[in-house]
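re: ur question from earlier - yeah i can do the single chain one, its not a big deal. heres the input i used so u can compare w yours
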Amino acid sequence: MTNPTPPAAPGLTNSPVAGFVLACVLIAHFLYNFLVPAHEYPLRTEQVLTMTLDALMVAGLFGFRRVIPAPLFWIALVAGIGLFAFRLSADGWWTGHFAYTLGRR
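and the output i got, formated as tokens:
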């Protein structure tokens, strides 16, 4: 008589809800930075913090790769890479947004 293998311990990486939320946050953050122009330059600490959080979310996306649908994973991955692509534009390095405009006073 063989002993059955115990089920895997429930964890955060086994939850499809957490993976779905992470993918949706990445996509929403990308759309916000694409559609809404920046109106001011953030502090250096905020710039570094947002870049770090974006990198951690993209890295965390790979942990949820098996529990979320493949199209959602690829769309979120493109959105995460797109967030860093915005940083390569002229004004995007500081703002992280696609466009920069001065607001009316």
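The two ends are 79 Å apart (CA to CA). not sure if urs matches, ping me
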